[in-house]
Amino acid sequence: MTPTRCFGLAAAGSIAQLTEQARRAEQIGFDVVVLPDHLGVAAPLPSLIPVADAAPSLRVGNLVLDAPF
User: Fold this and answer.
1) Which of 18, 50, 54, 63 has its CB surrounded by the most CB atoms within 10 Å?
2) Gene3D superfamilies in the record, alphabetically (predicted)?
3) For the segment 5-62, what is each residue's pLDDT rounded down to a tens digit?
4) Is residue 41 one of the residues assigned to a domain?
């Protein structure tokens, strides 16, 4: 059985920066892009939509959701 490898990227920045990072990650063979939820960065859930649209072969998700913030 061949081991499964998954390469991921934790990204942050503006929507334009996130979509560019996602496109680049897709081109070089990453499998997953996750976004943090913390003060000072864009909210992850709305940001995931343009990221997923920009790089459709990547799986996208959030690292955590900081509900108290």
Assistant:
1) 18
2) Luciferase-like domain
3) 677 777 778 889 889 988 998 998 888 888 888 877 778 888 899 999 999 999 998 8
4) no
Three-state secondary structure along 6-39? CCEEECCCCHHHHHHHHHHHHHCCCCEEEECCCC
Residue 63 pLDDT class (50, 70, 90 cuts): confident
- Count how many domains the chain has: 1
- Please report, as a single letter, which amino acid is at residue 2: T
Residue 6 main-chain phi, psi, to 5 deg: -135, 125
Dig out the tokens for 65 from the structure. 């959701």
CA-wise closest residue to 35 among 24, 46, 26, 27: 46
Owning domain of residue 17: 7-36
